[in-house]
Amino acid sequence: MKKCKSGSGRRTGRKERKMVKGLDIVSCSCLFSLFPSGSATRSAFLLFVFSISSAFAQPRQTGTGPGERYYPVHDFRDDFQVYDERAKSYVPYIVEKHADQTALSVYVDLESNRHYSLLIATRQDGYLFINAALKRKLRAEGWQVLNIDSLYKVYRQPELFLTIYGSPGLDNKQLLIGYPKSATQTPILLHDDNLSVRPRPSTIYNDFLGLGLLFLLTTHTFLFTFYRRAFQRFYNLRDLLSVRAQEESFLINRPLSSTNTLFALNLSFVIAYLIVFLQSQDLTVFTSGTLLLAGQNMGGLLSEFFLLSGVTFLSLLGKYISLEVMGGLYKLQEVVNIHYFKILQSSLLFFTFLTLLLSILAYNTWVVSWSQSVLLVPVVIFYATRLALLYFVIRSLEPIKNLYLFSYLCIVELVPLIIGLRFAL
C-alpha cells in the first residue's frame, strides 16, 4: 500500500465537481439580468425560480451511522483519491476513469474535527489502512465507529491518510465524520446541501499554556521576593561558569535544605510545563501523550502537569542520592554537594530560558509543525557543556586522575543522559 507523497491534489476533485453548480448560478443570474428592473416579468421570473428551487430542494439527512445515531458533519465522497501509476502520485477520484479501483484513499483532518467520530461502512468485506498500515477488517453491511480524539492521541498527527480497500467503485464505500445525537436534542432540518455548520475549532492547550505561564511567573515571583539571595545565586550565569565555587555557601553545604528544595520544586514545575508544551505541539516526551486518559480537558491537563512535576521532583532527589552513593564509592564525598548545586543551577537557567524561548516562538511566529530537533539539539548541547563544566569544577576542588574522574562522570552524567534520550523522544 503506497502512501501519498504529495497533497497537491487533495481538494482538486471537489472544486471540479462544484463547477457545475457554479455554472447553474451564473446562468440564472444572466437570465435574471435580461428583464428590466422593477418590471412585473422580472418579479414573476424570480417567483418561478424560487418555487422551482424549493420544490426540488433535498432536505439534509437527519441521521447517519449505526442506527442513525449520528449527525453528518462531513462526507468524504468528494474527497477520495486513487494512486495513478503514470503520475506516480495520488489523483482525485473520477467515476468515469476510476470505477474499477478497489483502493480509495483520503486525508482526514483530526485537529479540526476533535470530539467527532469517524464512520466507515462498506457493502462488501474490505480492509482499513491508516498511514499505509493495515489496521482492521471491515465487515460487510456494518458500521465501524472510530473516535477522532483517540486517533489523535495514538498517532499524535494533525492529519491521517486513510485507505479503504475492497470492492471496486465508490458506491460500495461510505466514510463520514459524524457527531453523536443527544437524547434530549430536537432534530434540525436544513434544506441547503451546501451549508455545513461546525463549531469553531478550539484546543484546551491554549488555555492551559496561558495559565501555566502565569503560574510559573507566580512561583518565580515568590522565590525572588522571599528568597532573593538564593534566587540571585541560582540565576547567575557568571556564577555558573565560575570554576572556583564558594564551598562555604549555605546553598552548597545544605543540598536538601528547604531553600534548595523549593528551587528544585520550581525546576520541576518548569520541566513539567515544557513537557506539556511539547505535547501540545505533537511532540511526545517520555510517553506523556498516553498519560491523559480521561480526555483532553482542563482538569486532565492539570492532573498531568502536577503528575509530571512530582515525577521530576522525585527524580531530582534520586539524583542527589545517586551522587551520594557514587561519591562514596569513588571517595569523592567532598564534591557531591557542589556537584548537585551545579546541576540545579545549570538546569534552572537552561530549562527556564528554553521554556520562555519556545513560548515566545509559539505565540509570535507561525510554525506548521515542530520537529524533535527543537528539543533534542539544545538538550544535547546543554548536557555536553554541563559535563565539561563539572569536569573542570571537580578538578579544581579535588586532585584526581583524569581516568578516575571520567569514569565517575560517565556513570552519574553520561549514562543517564543516553538512557533518557533513548526513551524520551
Shape: elongated
What Rg do the Cα atoms give?
31 Å
Strand content: 5-15%
List the quaternary state of the chains. single chain
Please list the strands of the largest sheet in the order they lie side by side.
1-10-5-8
How is the main sheet built?
4 strands, antiparallel
Distance between the termini: 27 Å
Total beta strand runs: 10
Structural class per helix/strand content? alpha+beta
Contiguous runs where pLDDT drops below 50 for at least 5 residues: 2-28, 54-60, 188-202, 288-295
Helices, by number, come to: 13
Write the SSE topology.
Elements: H1 12-34, H2 40-56, E1 70-75, E2 81-84, E3 89-92, H3 95-98, E4 103-109, E5 117-122, E6 126-130, E7 133-138, E8 142-147, H4 148-155, E9 159-165, E10 173-180, H5 204-226, H6 228-234, H7 237-241, H8 250-253, H9 258-280, H10 298-329, H11 333-364, H12 373-397, H13 402-424
Helix pairs in contact: 5-6, 5-9, 9-10, 9-11, 10-11, 11-12, 12-13
Describe the overall structure.
The chain has 425 residues and is of the alpha+beta class. It has two domains: 12-180, Sandwich (Jelly Rolls), CATH 2.60.120; 204-424, no CATH class. The chain has 13 helices and ten strands. The strands form three sheets. It has a four-stranded antiparallel beta sheet. Helix 9 packs parallel to helix 11.
